[in-house]
Every structure is written in C-alpha cells, then in structure tokens.
Amino acid sequence: MIYIDENNKCCLSATSDFLYKTDDVNLYAFLELSNLYKHHLPLNDILHSLKSKIITQTMPYEDEYDIYSIGRRYRISKHLLRNIDEFETCDYRRKSLEITYNSKVGKLSVIVQVITLFYHYDNDKSYVIGKVKDEIFFIDISSIIEIKSTNIRNECYKDDNVMQKLELMFGASLDGPFDVVVEFDNKFNIMERLTRLKRLRKSCSLSVFGETIIYKDTIYGMHDFARFLRSFGSSCRVISPNELKDLMRNTYERILKSYGVGIKYEERHEPDAATYSYYCK
Amino acid sequence: MKKDMSLMLQLIAIIANNRGITTKQLANILNVPEGVVLRNLELISYNPEFRLLDIYSEEHEDAIMDLGDMTWNIACEDEEDSDDIVYLCINSVEKFLFESLVANAFFDDEILGIRIKSTHGLAEQKDKFLIITLAIENRKKLKVKYKTRYKTSDFLIEPLRIVYYEIDNMVYIIGQHNGRIATYRLDRMIEIKATNERFEPIGVEHVESLLEYSWGMEQGNLFNVKVKFLDEANVIYKVKRDLSHRKNKKITEYEGYIIYEDTIAGINSFKRWLRSYGSSAIVLEPEELRNDMIRSAEQCLSYYIE
Questions:
Q1: Which of B29, B86, B304 lies at the smallest CB-CB distance from A245?
Q2: Which end of chain B has fewer CB atoms within 10 angstroms, the N or the C?
C-alpha cells in the first residue's frame, strides 16, 4: 500500500503478496552462486535473466568470477519453464492432470497422477513421471500438447515407492531392477571416478582387492549403465547379471563388426581367487 | 505476467529497496522515460488498495517541484531490521529458482520440484573462487596444499585462468610453472592461501591455444582425428551437443551418418568419450587410434565369451 506519512512523504507498505521478501545474506548468496552457473549448465538462461532482474531491483555490489566454461549446450529452459507454469496453474501436486502429448504411436491423452517432474542431465530432457492407472509413465515434457486440470485427486505425488526407484535409476528408465557387480582395474583415475559416482549413488558399494575394485549396486536402466561402463574400455568387466554381460558382449561384437574385424573367441577373463570368493558371498 | 504489470511491480520493488529514490532515478534504472514511471505509479493509485497523494522532495519543500525530483519512500512493518530486508518482484518460477539456489539445492537433488539426476558440487568450491580470481587479477602467486592420488604437497602456483569443464563437472586452474602452462584441479586443492609474491604472466595466446585443442583438460601431442557417427537413436543430436564448444571442428553430414574432423590434444579423454558411443562411433583416422579402439573392443569382448 502507498500512503503519506506524518512528514508528508509518500510511503509504500511492502507487505503485499506479489513482493517476495528476503534478506541481504540470501541476496548475496544468490548472486555469488549464480556467478558459478555459466552458460554450459541447464536452466542458465532463466537463472541469468532472474539475476539481471534482481540486480535492477536491488542494485547490489557484487564480485564477478571470470570462469571460462567448456561444455554442452542446454535447450531445456524453453519447454520446461513454459510447462512448469502450466503445471503450477493446474495444481499438479493435489490434482490429477489430463495430459495430451505426442507419443510414438501418435497423439494420446491420459489422466496422470504426477509423481514428480524429472530432468535428465545427459539427455537434456525433462519428463513428467506419473501413474496412469497402475502403470508408471515417463512423458517427455517437450512432447506435451496440452495440460488440463481435473477434479480427481492426485494420491501419488512424491510416492515413496516410486521415489526410491528413481533414486536407483542410472538414466531415465525404470527397466530393472538389476543387482550389478562390476570389476574395475584399480589404475589411472578409475578409483577417483568411481568415488565420485558413489557420492551420487547411495546404493552402491566399492571394495578394493589388490589391483581391482569391485563395484556393487542395484540399478534401474541397464542401457544407461552399460554406456557408462563402456567409457572405461577394457578396464572394467561385468561379473553379473547375465543380462548386462550379454548387452556388453553384443555391443563389442557390433563395434568390431563396424570396424570390419572378425571376432576371436580364444581368450577369457577369469577373476582371481580372492575376488571370486567375494562375488560369491 | 504482462509486461506493463511487470514494470509496475518492478517499480514497487525498486522503491522498496532504494528509499528516497527520485522519479528521474527510477526512470534511469528501468531505462524508460520519466512519464512512463509516473504513469505507472498513477496506475498503481487507481487500485482501490492503494492511495497515492502528492509527493514532495524533502530538500526542496518550498520550491515548485519538477516531477522528476519527486522522492519515493517506503515504510516497512518490520522497520527495526529493515536494512537487511530485500524485496524482489519475481514470479513463482523465479521464486523457486532463487530459493533452490540459495539453499544450495541446485543440481544436488531438486529444483522447482524437479528431480535432477546429477550432482554438481560447484557450490562446495565457491569459497575458493574469490581468492583465485583476485590472485589472477593481481598477478600474485597462490600457496596451495595439493592432493594427488599418492601424496599431498605444498607448492606455489601462478594462476592464469579458472576453467569449468562441464562434461566432467570439474573445475581446473590453468597456471604456469617455469614458463610452461600447467593445469591443476580445483577439487584437489585442499587449502589455498594468497601470497604477496608477484609473477609475470606468459602470453594469453598459450592459454587460448590449450583450450582450443585440448579434449577435456588433458594436454599432450596434437592428433588429427576423423570419426564417423551413425545416425541411430539420438546419437547425432548428442554428438553435436557434446561438440558444441569445439572451435576447430568440421562436421559433414551424409545420408545415415556424419563425419567429424578435428585436431585434438588429450587422446585418452577423447577415447573415453568415443567409447561411450559404442558401435555408433567408428574411428577413421588416425590409424593408431583406430587400431587402439579395435584392440580395446577385442579385449572387452574376450571378457564375455564363454
């Protein structure tokens, strides 16, 4: 509210809902952190437009870090932000939504109880994960044509069971679960790479046996995991499950075929005795 | 939010954060004519919730006022701690973004209620950035405690640039050592202290050259590479996205595949990247890399043959 005070000054009461109230500490924390999120990170466009808006409104003094950024481009902002506003308007946390989207078999409309929205970093894609009847659906947000609110209650928002499964996903797929055991050579920076992975995956364990590292985990999304493993080349060997071993074998056969190389079958890797007994526990 | 409404709310936020601000100053900040500022404040007054009366400059109460010199003020309910309070005119998405970032939740788990399946621990490193930035600007050496796989050492570095490599989510410091470029990983610097010891930076072109050719942040001999990527699943989209930062790349599109050519330093990081594409990537040149990829695939296959 704007009013005139006893000194005849025009005053504005800033308690209205449309003004967001924060403090200097948060303001500077935001500016400092937003300096770190350069153009090679998702959501950077909206973040930096927000930053310039905040600077206009508050005129703070800030330190700039000169960080050279090398990486991929993210296209996420446009679809995601357009749809987030629509999801918010439809009160997706409490109400089921009628979502019309382009699927592989054409235009489909489904009533979805949204469990969560999910962003897959490597694919630069965002998904609505929700229950349609009893099935879990992943709907690519960029394929959505229309979102409508319904009067049906959403009883699945942040459903514990599904959220636990999402924790175990290696990419953006719920095929599985698979208990995986993989042997890595303990050389170069492999231990360090696995340790960094462990920070993201509470479900995994790492054990060192001499020159090898045993990685155990429960995962959903075997193809994404296989892709990750391939980047280690011959420094990693899948011990179990058989489905993953088959997937790896097929991939390497296809690679050799693409190079026009005949397949040799004379070698076979066997783990040493100590490692073998660990696998069998 | 409509643009007109947005300007009006911006005005309110700016007045709230800059007490005693004049119409001229408001017009300057928002880069709009004074008339637009006044018109918007007038519009605010049409709202029955608001009451807008004549306003006078404190300094020139007796003079006939120029509209541009009108000062605007705010009275907060919680006047006692009002110096620390900041008002922002932001929409709901921006509000969540602001809160997520401030709470360091950004990239760790959730943003805007969206789960993000990747952790970026940049925020953990933020305290180191200011000290390094100042050292680069003032050409002063840094004393660092640096942890490698086998030991921890103390030494001086001469920092030239901070580089964030998104694909590996790593921050590096490019520095110089005995007149040569050296690369350090920020996460391995467990302690950084500023010193007063100055250094003379070598030419910027050395740093630019390193960044232009290196794959990842690896250094080494230069290789001319030529790789064929098959157009299957979303391979081409991903390859192009991964290569978006490569300045000297050449991509030629054919029916069903693309050919990527480049000059790179850092063959090991490059191989790691290629392998993640499985059978969709076929090295054409150089021959030693092609042979290496074949040998590696043969070795890997041998693990899975019963």
A1: B304
A2: C
- What pLDDT does residue B45 have? 62
Domain membership of residue A66 (yes or no) is: no
Would the pTM count as exceeding 0.90? no
Q: CA of A182: how far to CAs of A188, A225, A228, B22, in Å?
A: 17, 11, 12, 68
Letter string b/e over residues B190-211, b meaning 16 or more CB atoms within 10 A of that residue's CB: eebeeeeeebeeeeeebbeebb
- Is residue B159 within 8 A of residue B136, CB to CB? The reply is yes
As for how many domains chain A has, the answer is 3
Any idea which residue has 């998405």 for tokens? B93
Give the ipTM. Answer: 0.77
- A125 and A213 belong to one structural domain: no
Ramachandran category for residue A124: left, alpha or beta (phi over 0 → left; psi -120 to 50 → alpha): left
Q: Cis peptide leading into A271, omega within 30 of 0? A: no
Q: Cβ contacts (< 8 Å) between B107 and chain A: which residues? A: 41
Chain B residue numbers with beta carbons less than 8 Å from the beta carbon of A19 are 9, 12-13, 16, 87-89
CB contact at 8 A, B76 and B66:
no
Answer yes or no: is B113 within a domain. Answer: no
- Give dist(CA B210, CA A236) in Å, integer: 31
Between helix A242-258 and helix A222-230 the angle, nearest 10°, is 50
